[in-house]
Amino acid sequence: MSRLTDSFDKSARLKVRDDETVSGWSVGVVIFGICLTLPSLYTGAVSAQNLGIVETAKAIGIASLVLAVMSVPAAIVGAKTRLSSYLLIEFVFGRKGADFVNALLGLTLLGWFAVTAGFFGQTLHIAFTEMFGLSPPVWVLTLISSLLIMLTTLFGFKAIDRLALFAVPLLILFLLYVAYLSLNLQGLNSLLAIEPANPEYFSTAVSTIIGSLIVGVVLMPDLSRYARSVKDCVIASILGNGLGNSFSMFIAVIPALATGFIDPMIYMISLGVLASAFIILVFATWTTNSVNLYSTTLAAAVIVPKVPEWKLLLGCGFLGTGMAVAGLAEYFISFLEWLGVIVPPIAGIYLADFFVLKRQTFDLDKLSKVADYDLAALIAWLLSTFISVLAFWFEISFTGIVSLDALILTIPLYLACTKIWRTKYVRTLPTC
Questions:
Q1: What is the pLDDT of residue 2?
Q2: Which end of the chain is more exposed for a tag (fewer CB within 10 A), N or C?
Q3: Where in the sequence is the domain holding 176, given as residue range(s)?
């Protein structure tokens, strides 16, 4: 048993070594794979049925641009420090204060794992019914698929990277083929002629699309700490959160409009590609939920440092599976909208800390010097989250994108708080 556990990933509490780094293309492909999943296809289909093809394309383009731009500085922080998001947050928010922030992020990621697992169980149920005439319980299929995901995630980023490099090209080719079949069913002109059912859904679509990946943007350091350079961070951000998100959302628009179905497995069945759809969607969900569980474990490992990471991973995996079986996927759209409000302030604080205040030294040996609670960061986080929630509730926005509003609002609030509540252990780089 000890030989096996020695092979498991133990990077949550350590800096990534130079010999462990990879190219921006490798990191970008992993992020691209995260985007190619059932919830993303579902989100694109829902947007299409409300807005039609042209307005959906605009919403996807705006959201993907915002996500790509936001992820570049977050990725650079990860590449420069070689630390996970959760260790960065510990330096910025204080050793004990960070537990509250990391717990929120961990629960959010666990929710993502549960939502994706829930969709996957339902998809497998449809596939087994159509292919074999069997009707196994959805919860059994959800549990078995989650066990497979847990097994991969035990071996860390390298295993996820290899899985993504294999799966992503296949996913892209297959989804392009599905779009081709859909256009044969209904021509492009017919699809363009479909009138939007709910034009007012545009802002919701942008917010929902951003919400679907905003957690990944905030937690970019978890993956970008493996990137070799700033250039690689830009490549990873554009390829993953820019092109990956655009492709995964828009590729679902054509079959959803052509067939009238939202569920990816159902419209693929109607197009006659059941067997290949089953295989491809397995790989899509496998890649994405491995990353969700990986990041959840990183958060838990920082909060509970004395428990072995593999035990935390299994615990989080089984808890998330239980949440999936309980039906969390039913609240998917609302879940995404709220994520776009409550998560960006965290990124706003650690980005301002790194780029504006130039606090860029993260020596793990000196983590003990960091105060238990950094009042400036914690108060700014609470204030900006509260204001962002109120603005979202009363539909007030100065950019038209609630996630961007929340991020922008946080930065001056945090800088003002640092003037009132001084940081005890200053991490600025020495001047020459």
A1: 37
A2: C
A3: 25-340
Please answer whether residues 71 and 237 qualify as being in contact, where contact means their C-beta atoms are separated by less than 8 angstroms: yes
Under 8 Å between Cβ of 318 and 381 = no
**Looking at residue 161, which CATH number applies to its domain?**
1.10.4160.10
Res 65 pLDDT > 90 = yes
For residue 395, being part of any structural domain is answered with no
- Model confidence at 386, pLDDT cuts 50, 70, 90, reads very high
Q: Does 258 fall in a domain?
A: yes
Q: What is the pTM of this model?
A: 0.84
Q: What is the mean pLDDT of residues 370-374?
A: 92
> Is 70 exceeded by the pLDDT of residue 327?
yes
Mean pLDDT of 216-220: 86
Three-class SS string for the chain? CHHHHHCCCCCCCCCCCHHHCECHHHHHHHHHHHHCCHHHHHHHHHHHHHHHHHHHHHHHHHHHHHHHHHHHHHHHHHHHHCCCHHHHHHHHHCCCHHHHHHHHHHHHHHHHHHHHHHHHHHHHHHHHHHHHCCCCCHHHHHHHHHHHHHHHHCCHHHHHHHHHHHHHHHHHHHHHHHHHHHHHHCCHHHHHCCCCCCHHHHHHHHHHHHHHHHHHHHCCHHHHCCECCHHHHHHHHHHHHHHHHHHHHHCCHHHHHHHCCCCHHHHHHHCCCHHHHHHHHHHHHHHHHHHHHHHHHHHHHHHCCCCCHHHHHHHHHHHHHHHHHCCHHHHHHHHHHHHHHHCHHHHHHHHHHHHHCCECCCCHHHHHHCCCCCHHHHHHHHHHHHHHHHHHHCCCCCCCCHHHHHHHHHHHHHHHHHHHCCCCCCCECCCC
For residue 421, is it within any domain?
no
How many domains in the chain? 1
Separation CA 429–CA 289 (nearest Å): 37
pLDDT of residue 409: 93
